[in-house]
Amino acid sequence: MSRPSDHFDSPDPAAERRLKAGGTGPGDGSGGPDGPGGSDDIVQPKLGFVGWLRWTWRQLTSMRTALFLLLLLALAAVPGSLVPQRAADPNGVTQYFADNPSLAPFLDKLQAFDVYTSAWFSSIYLLLFISLIGCVVPRAKHHFDALRAKPPRTPARLSRLAGFERREAPDGIGAVAAIESARKLLRKSGYRVVVFTAPGKNGAGETASVSAERGYARETGNLVFHAALVGILLTVGVGGGYGFSGQRVLVAGGGVFVNTLSAFDSFNPGRFFSEDSLAPYSMKLDQFTATYETKADGAFGQPIDYNAMVTTQERGQAPQTADIKVNSPLRIGGTDVYLLGNGYAPTITVKDPNGKVVFTDSVPFLPQDANLTSVGVVKVPDGLSEQLGMIGFFYPTQATSTTGAFYSTYPDADYPVLTLNVYDGDLGLNGGVPTSVYSLNTDKMKQLTGGSTGVASIQLKPGDSQALPNGLGTISFDTVHRYASLDIHHDPTQGWVLLFAASALLGLLISLFIPRRRVWVKATERADGTLSLEYAGLARGEDPRLLPAVADIAERHSKLLTGATPPETNA
Amino acid sequence: MTLDEYSIFFLYAAMAVYAFAFIAFALDLARRSAQVSAGNTVAVDGSVTTAPTVRESVAAGSGASSAVLNASSATLVAERPAGGSVDGSAKSGKNGANVANGAVAADGSVTRRSLSLRLGVSFTVIGFLLELTADVLRGIAANRVPWANMYEFSMTGTVLIVAVFLVVITRVDLRFLGTFITGLVLILLGISTVNYYVVIAPLPPALQSAWLVIHVFVASLGTAFFALGFALSGIQLLQYRRETLTLGAEFLKLKFLASLPDSTRLENLAYRVNIVGFVFWTFTLIAGAVWAERAWGRYWGWDTKEVWTFIIWVIYAGYIHARATRGWRGSRSAWLAIIGFGAVLFNFGVVNVFFHGLHSYSGL
Ligand code: HEM
């Protein structure tokens, strides 16, 4: 067996040494902790460089190392669930920095916000996979040889083996004939067989035996499983670099998305991504519907369905309509388009004191709670005497609490209200620093309404308009649209990953549930002409059904010999 | 009363019956301890053979010798007789029928089966049927599978734990785990009815998928097997301590251990149960990734729930490896199975409720 030397099935070197030294017999190899770890590194007087390398390799590919690395991997994965991760939850990380200003930078040095790409996590799984390859390759070679080898010789004394049973053959059957029928029986039950015959000793008749082995698939399954894990790692590691993911917000009835780099709100390319791989297509959101629970008392307002109805057009083809839902992405132009979020985009128009429109747009607001109280930012850089910034709150179904604060009681736009706090001053757009459309830097601005200014916030219903403070102009809330936030992904490897994962599962099933066992049947002709039959088996790995299997073979063989038809069972 | 109220009614009824089952199973363990103290032989199936006048002849004389595990010879008996008694349950079952209500063997020994054990199983079956009814009613009331929030997972999960237990004991006599199983189920149901109950709500769009049916169900099934494996590994550790104590040493107060299979046998049983759980868990992991791809646009994103599912998977892979690593069989691997189940409980009870992530479907 080309198993790692500390596999429990491998010969125990410590025990062998003890045996050679004339000590007590070997342990049963199955229980009890043995001596202090490392019983298998035979102490050698001098290790040359090559010897040292070989020793290191042996350690790395041992079962003990694999086990240690597996447990270490489990442990190393824990911190990533305790601290927000940049890849999964970037806002959470920002929040964490704000909440723990002294701890966060320290954790950041330890790569605690990027655990799964960190140097330490990566080194653990890379070592594990090196160990895995170093373990699997020799085993695969050995297994390939074993597949073509014959089952081993029948042991001299079967009575020491599992399920041993002795029976008398009916009169008139010779050893060779009896074994031939056993051979056929075992063969039919899926065993690989080889027959041995020997002339009897001391004038007794012939001895014949059949040695049978089955369950090579167990090892095959194990190798497939481990190889598939390597396959998954490689496809994810290398193939993942060819993909990309990007985000885009589309307002219903608003702008058209064309699948080019500049059309994404944000874009994360893989390492090997090239822009040419973007297939040209366009997409626009015709309508977005959200359905909410209106009856059940405890679940009032819970979303039941979101549906983004889009019109798409691929190059040289007629426009087509499609629905995108949660759990039902749209596959188009080599990309998958997912509906990940939605919200309200109030249409806001700002005019200068002369009534000239200086700003008009549907501005996506970010939902803050289950009833879609939403926050958004309006920036008016040009056309007024001052740059203007506004922080707006949108309440789809507005209500007033006892303290006078506004809130939303239902996520649908039943009684929409928009409030805005106005700032003037420098929007900071010309500093060259990229700014988010969802945030307003008020450092160099002066608040004109709301808060401590003593001036009431602007408060609008759809169709309303109101004068801006300081005679800056007017603002109107024309209407409100829904928007959908779409994730657009391309991952050329996920089919492969699925294939490897499925092979891993299949290999696992085979390797855990197909028993590998040896069975022997031996026929010995006695001096008086009677024939004694012996049956025994040996488990190779876990095999809880070995004893019934041997008994079943014995039973069916006896029936065969006495001429009764054997029952069709599979041992 | 609404269907959901009927469901709750059946659930409370099931809990009451499980409590009776728990008491009956506990009485059986107490009875085993008492009988062992009195010097009688208690088999795995709880039947007691009182010592005849000539003690030595017990094992040889009683026909059911294979079913009787003599405490002191436990380690030596190891695989063969134990394997025979439990796997060939049909055989020992027949023996059991012969000695049903106390049979007197030739040597004067008397074998008596445990009434409390049979009561325990009967109560468990009744409790199971009641809880299953509660679960099905909840599903009908909600017009979907009853495993879409914490309250419903707890109910379906415990139904599955009991179902797996009841199925397994028809093949291998693990009825001695009854106290553990009914106790665990009672605790889980108690916590969930008090803390997790939510009124029936429609499925949020993220959960409207066939994968909810498959992924969550298989995860619960895996958990049920892990629970059994956990119990077996725990008892294995106790049993091992008892076996390795020098002869004559009093071990804790758990005398009933003498009537249970030896630690090697327990270890093998735990392994067989745990690998079934592991296969289901592997499937859960893959199915979860497929679903995540459809719902969130990526098959793996190290979301907290994904992380913990992965951790559990790796711990159990470690456990399977440990079983194949010299020096790690026996108690050390058992500890890994126990840690693994600890992680399963943590994933369910703590990660779902307190950790922030995309899987915020606890309904709380
Ligand atoms: C990513 C890391 C690994 C994982 C997740 C893993 C997982 C598993 C699982 C689930 C099994 C049981 C199913 C089967 O037999 O196919 C197994 C068995 C086995 N693994 Fe691994 N393994 C990993 C790495 C390794 C390494 C590095 C080695 C070699 C040092 C190794 C050697 C073995 C051996 C010899 C068995 C057979 C155990 C037996 O005889 O029962 N594995 N592994």
What letter string, H or E per element, gives the SSE order of chain B?
A: HEEHHHHEEHHHHHHH
Which secondary-structure class do the elements of chain A indicate?
alpha+beta
Low-pLDDT windows of residues of chain A: 21-41, 565-571
Q: How many runs of DSSP E, i.e. beta strands of chain A?
A: 24
What is the CA-CA span between the terminal residues of chain B? 24 Å
Question: What features would you highlight for this structure?
Answer:
heterodimer; A: 571 residues; alpha+beta; 7-stranded antiparallel beta sheet; 24 strands; 28% helix; elongated; disordered C terminus; B: 364 residues; mainly alpha; 4-stranded antiparallel beta sheet; 12 helices; 4 strands; binds protoporphyrin IX containing FE
Structural overview:
The complex is a heterodimer of chains A (571) and B (364). Chain A is of the alpha+beta class. Chain A is built from eleven helices and 24 strands. In chain A, strands 4, 6, 10, 11, 12, 21 and 22 form a seven-stranded antiparallel beta sheet that branches. In chain A, strand 11 and strand 12 (357-362) form a beta hairpin. In chain A, helix 9 (216-239) runs antiparallel to helix 10. The longest helix of chain A has 30 residues, at 119-148. Chain B is an all-alpha fold and 364 residues long. Helix content of chain B is 67%, strand content 3%. Chain B is built from twelve helices and four strands. Chain B has a four-stranded antiparallel beta sheet with strand order 1-2-4-3, with helices on one face. Chain B starts with a helix and ends in a 10-residue tail after the last helix. At the A-B interface, helix 3, strand 8, strand 11 and helix 10 of A face helix 4, helix 10, helix 11 and helix 12 of B. Bound molecules: protoporphyrin IX containing FE.
